[in-house]
Design brief:
Helix content of chain B: over 70%
Number of strands of chain A: 10
Structural class of chain B: mainly alpha
Largest interface: A-B, 54 and 39 residues
Shape of chain B: globular
Oligomer: heterodimer
Largest sheet of chain B: 2 strands, antiparallel
Strand order of the largest sheet of chain B: 1-2
Largest sheet of chain A: 6 strands, mixed
Chain lengths: 304, 387
């Protein structure tokens, strides 16, 4: 799933714009300079040593193709950091480097200022990092509650022997995990579906369950890979509000195609194009950056 | 809803019907079911132990009331069921296929044959535990290789195991008896056991019945432990790894470890099954552990319903009781002995084909579906009334 090409970036152009309802934020957020600003005011660029999570000078080549070239990114405490860019810009590759699915040829990943060596996906949860997947990636054979309990798995206490003999310790552990799962589900308003199988639920609910699974791990860094894909405008607004409420507990990194969501939610935005960082700053800075407009926003302006 | 959430440790086999129809306020049998559930012990162990105890009573009744011939059939069923229960956990819950479980049973049987020396040797339970441990060790080695393989490659690798292990017995013919096989000493019936049975039923305990008791005692213990695993975290993580590797890994689960653990648990069951087979058949011979045995186990598990312990029981019952039953019917219908004997594999094959065509989720899967449908139908009118 991760290796697959990211969902096709809606080509900025007349067709897409015309297909949307008039006054849609998709366009207005890009063009208006007084769009919604972050409640904390313009945050300063966190430096690599104080950042909750940072990537420094990441380079990735697939054969002769340079997927990422000297990409750096720093996420401050309680910040929402957006990563945007046209299709094939390297956003997902960057995410996969951050998760240990792809080993970078150059550069390091830093956690609280310390370089992380030998980053593997299964170590993320223990490091307090949770990630959602493109699509939903739920376990089809597990109920919603069990799905989220797997997300909370890093908080388990009982071992194999306790489970094998069904010791009281194992029962206590199960109750605690279920408690965490139900708390995460009710925070997202999905606790009514606890005993359903994911496939029987509408897609937006599945997305919420996937998010609950990530939150159940109680991470201090949440990586969201296209959380708004397949959601309606109302649901997207709701998601944006939700992400903002998370910032008192965790930092969020967001890869997303929906500009209105990114512009309204993010404190800082990194723009990638052809594997390079073309801009990095607050939504307002990025919006007006000529390099960003060159990269792909300008295309829309010339077409419309 | 609250009752539903409470059911933390219910085995998957029981939970699934309720899971698909989440309203616990269903009238009729649904409510009675919920009431029964409330009266069950809250702890997972208490609940499972209660069910096991009830099953034990049933086993005693059946073994005391049936003929010696049936007793020996039940003994045969017990070792098939032990191995099938282990296999259903591996294939159904963790998604790893194994064509090599017959070979793992051979490891258990040969270990038992080497250690069980009749008089003055190790006691039977110790021998069986050692057999399980040795097989688990072999399972760990195979599982470590298997954890890196998928689908047809895994099937191929385990198939190689199924072919190679009986060959080993022929190669080391001085220690393992070669083609003739290794005789397994028949355990004596302990006098306390015979006394207990006599006290309960006023029946004598011939060796065949004792072996059936050993087999079914082991089977119930295995089912109890497997149900414990399935109800709690271990089973959940196995299923998570089966369903989505990437998501499981991101939740902090080490895929390799989880897969090897599943293989080890499954192999330990196969080792126990091999030990029971050894003492029931009184022989561990290469011809008893061919690929046919491995395939038979796999079909039993699939016919019963993958991933369900009840399904494994049903499947192995079919494996043991169907062929003689068909032969009897054949003779009753006027066929001669040879023709009747040929009828059995034919009917077994037809049953397999029909199951694959009509009920690919196995007997347990079909039952669940029917149960869900009947619950939904009953609930339909009542919700209209209240709504």
């Amino acid at each position: 799933m991760l290796g697959a090409a990211p969902k096709v970036w809606a080509p900025p152009g007349i067709g897409v714009t015309a297909a949307r309802a008039p006054g849609d934020a998709h366009v207005s957020a890009l063009t208006s300079s007084n769009g919604p600003t972050s409640p904390n005011g313009p945050p300063a660029q966190p430096d690599l040593s104080t950042a909750v999570f940072a990537a420094s000078g990441i380079g990735v080549r697939f054969g002769g193709l340079v997927a990422l070239d000297d990409v750096s990114l720093a996420v401050g405490t309680g910040q929402v950091h957006g990563v945007i860019g046209p299709n094939g810009a390297g956003k997902t590759t960057l995410f996969n480097v951050c998760c240990g699915f792809v080993r970078p040829d150059a550069g390091t990943v830093l956690r609280h200022g310390k370089p992380v060596r030998n980053l593997r996906p299964h170590r993320l949860a223990g490091m307090g990092i949770a990630r959602t997947l493109q699509g939903v990636g739920l376990f089809a054979g597990l109920t919603v509650a069990e799905n989220v309990m797997v997300g909370a798995d890093r908080h388990r206490r009982a071992g194999f022997a306790a489970t094998l003999f069904a010791l009281a310790r194992s029962d206590r552990d199960e109750r605690a995990l279920r408690g965490r799962a139900m708390a995460a589900l009710s925070e997202l308003g999905a606790d009514g579906y606890a005993d359903r199988l994911p496939d029987s639920l509408p897609y937006p609910v599945q997305k919420r369950v996937a998010l609950a699974r990530a939150l159940a791990a109680e991470p201090d860094l949440l990586l969201l890979d296209e959380p708004a894909s397949g959601l309606s405008n109302d649901e997207m607004t709701e998601l944006g509000e939700l992400i903002r409420t998370l910032t008192d507990r965790m930092s969020v990194v967001l890869v997303e195609h929906h500009m209105d969501l990114v512009m309204s939610v993010c404190d800082r935005i990194t723009v990638l194009d052809f594997g390079k960082v073309v801009a990095d700053g607050t939504p307002d800075e990025v919006r007006d950056d000529p390099a960003v407009i060159d990269a792909y926003l300008g295309e829309e302006a010339t077409h419309s | 809803m609250a009752q539903q959430i409470d059911r933390t440790g219910t085995p998957a086999a029981e939970r699934a019907p309720a899971a698909a129809a989440p309203s616990a306020a269903a009238p009729g049998p649904g409510r009675r079911f919920a009431a029964l559930r409330r009266r069950m012990p809250r702890s997972t162990f208490g609940r499972h132990a209660l069910i096991t105890l009830a099953a034990l009573v049933a086993v005693v009744l059946v073994l005391e009331l049936t003929s010696p011939f049936r007793n020996s059939q039940f003994a045969t069923m017990s070792y098939y069921a032990i191995a099938a229960a282990g296999l259903t956990v591996l294939t159904g819950l963790n998604g790893q296929i194994s064509l090599g479980h017959g070979a793992l049973m051979a490891v258990g049987a040969y270990t038992t044959g080497l250690l069980l020396t009749g008089d003055g040797g190790l006691p039977l339970p110790v021998v069986m535990l050692v057999a399980a441990a040795v097989t688990a060790l072999v399972g760990a080695v195979v599982g470590a290789a298997a954890a890196r393989l998928h689908g047809p490659y895994l099937a191929g690798a385990t198939l190689a195991l199924a072919v190679a292990v009986p060959g080993l017995a022929i190669y080391f013919d001085t220690a393992l008896g070669g083609e003739q096989g290794l005789p397994v000493a028949s355990p004596h019936v302990p006098s306390w056991f015979a006394d207990a049975v006599y006290f309960l039923s006023a029946n004598e305990t011939p060796t065949a019945k004792y072996l059936a008791y050993v087999g079914w005692g082991t089977l119930l213990l295995v089912l109890l432990l497997l149900a414990n695993l399935m109800a709690a975290r271990t089973g959940r993580v196995w299923r998570a790894v089966r369903d989505d590797e990437v998501a499981a890994e991101l939740a902090g689960i080490r895929l390799g470890r989880v897969r090897v653990l599943a293989f080890v648990v499954s192999a330990a069951c196969a080792g126990l099954a091999g030990a029971v087979l050894g003492i029931v058949v009184r022989l561990a011979a290469p011809s008893g552990f061919t690929i046919v045995l491995s395939l038979g186990l796999l079909t039993a598990v699939v016919v019963g319903g993958l991933g369900s312990l009840v399904g494994a029981l049903l499947g192995s019952a079919l494996l043991v009781f169907l062929p003689p039953a068909v032969t009897n019917i054949g003779i009753g219908a006027g066929l001669d002995g040879t023709q009747a004997a040929q009828l059995a594999p034919f009917v077994y094959g037809v049953v397999l084909v029909l199951v694959m065509l009509l009920a690919p989720s196995g007997a347990v899967g079909v039952t669940k579906k029917l149960w869900n449908r009947s619950r939904k139908n009953r609930r339909g009118p009542s919700t209209r009334r209240t709504g």
